[in-house]
Amino acid sequence: MTHSEPVRPEHMALLFAYSCPHCGTEAVLISPTSPATITCKGCRNEFSIIPVDAQTVQFVETMLDDGRAAVNPSY
Ligand SMILES: [Zn+2]
């Protein structure tokens, strides 16, 4: 059974792309707020990432009402 009304986003997340220093393949992470070592999917080498600031991420999510304020205005 399908619902007749299109559904609005309930939450949002920010993606951050890091380029592997060995081969350049991008690794996409959801708001990495802690330092971490990740394994590249391209070359399997490991590299450390600089984390993002949790308060900055929270600010953007709040500014967009957790995604609800980003809804296409024609809907
Ligand atoms: Zn790589």
Question: What's this model, at a glance?
Answer:
This protein is an alpha+beta fold. 13% of the residues lie in helices and 24% in strands.
List keywords for this structure.
Rubrerythrin, domain 2, alpha+beta, two-stranded antiparallel ribbon, 75 residues
Note down, in words, how this protein is organized.
The protein is elongated, with a radius of gyration of 17 Å. Strand 3 and strand 4 (46-49) form a beta hairpin. 13% of the residues lie in helices and 24% in strands. It has 1 helix and 4 strands. The mean pLDDT is 96. The chain has one domain: Rubrerythrin, domain 2. The chain is of the alpha+beta class and 75 residues long. The site of zinc ion (ZN) has 8 residues, from loops.
The CATH architecture assignment turns out to be: Single Sheet
How many helices does DSSP assign?
A: 1
The percent range for helix content is 10-25%
Q: What is the CATH T-level topology?
A: Rubrerythrin, domain 2
Strand order of the largest sheet: 1-2
Structural class: alpha+beta
* Biggest beta-sheet profile: 2 strands, antiparallel
N-C termini distance? 23 Å
Could you spell the SSE succession in H and E letters?
EEEEH
Q: Tell me the β content.
A: 15-25%
**Rg from C-alpha positions?**
17 Å
Q: Indicate the mean pLDDT.
A: 96
In this entry the ligands are: zinc ion
- Number of separate domains: 1
